[in-house]
Amino acid sequence: GVESRENLVSLAMKRILLLVALLAVPGVVPLLTAQQTPLPSPLVSGQAASVVIGQKSYSDITFGNTPERWGAISGMTIAGNRLIVADSSYLAPPNNNRILIYNDLAALKRRLPQDELPNADIVLGQDRPDTTTPGTSATRMNQPVGVATDGTRLFVAEWGNNRVLVYNRIPTAEGVPADVVIGQSNFTSSGFGTGQASLRRPNSVASDG
């Protein structure tokens, strides 16, 4: 009867108001629309790489310590359009004892085999872009093998210095010192330990932001 129709109308109005309230909550609209975004094509076994960086070709294995040549890399991460590479290793030389930052990953993806090797935009861990000497300070590194970022900060696990370095902002220039050291009491010590404040040969690092 009339009362039943009024109840239905009331229920419908409540649902409409609930939907309006949900749409007003930050993050709900992107969440709803994200469900409609098609997933990228899945990777398959045996799929060929589409880009090579650090070498002139897929068959080239020449190592180097220039801004465009890599040594024995052991880790990398992506922050937006930046590619960040740990150019060192705890397994085998050459250890270039540095972190390389490329500011334009999109340009790297467009690189053709005949193009010149791209230079890293920023080199961390060395006084000059063509040196590989290990060191222990807020600006020098010894076998940085793990690297991670939460999009703002940069984290580096140093195997040789038994520590993790934290940059509160991803460096935009060379020579920028780390802001925080974990595993050591200062930036100039590198001994290993087993206490709560010490590390021994850290080889990876991660952050949940």
Give the tags:
209 residues, alpha+beta, four-stranded antiparallel sheet, 8 strands, extended
Q: How would you write the strand order of the largest sheet? A: 1-2-3-4
Euclidean distance between termini CA atoms: 57 Å
Multimeric state of these chains? Answer: single chain
**Net shape:** extended
Helix content: 10-25%
Structural class: alpha+beta
Q: Tally the helices: what do you get?
A: 3
Radius of gyration: 24 Å
Low-confidence stretches: none
Describe the protein in words.
- The chain is of the alpha+beta class and 209 residues long.
- Helices cover 16% and strands 18% of the residues.
- It has 3 helices and 8 strands.
- It has helices at 2-23, 28-34, 105-109, and strands at residues 75-79, 82-87, 98-102, 122-124, 144-149, 154-158, 163-167, 180-182.
- The strands form 2 sheets. It has a 4-stranded antiparallel beta sheet with strand order 1-2-3-4, with no helix packed on it.
- β5 (144-149) and β6 form a beta hairpin.
- The longest helix is centred in the N-terminal third of the chain and has 22 residues, at 2-23.
- The mean pLDDT is 85.
